[in-house]
Amino acid sequence: TKAWDQLIRFVGTDGIPNGENEYLSLSRDVLSITQPEQFRMYACITTNKRIKPSGKFGIQKVEGGRYAVFTYKGSYRELDSVYCNIYRYWIPQSKYTLRDNISFEKYLNTPNQVNEEELVTEIYIPIE
Question: With a threshold of 0.85, does the pTM exceed it?
Answer without folding.
Answer: yes
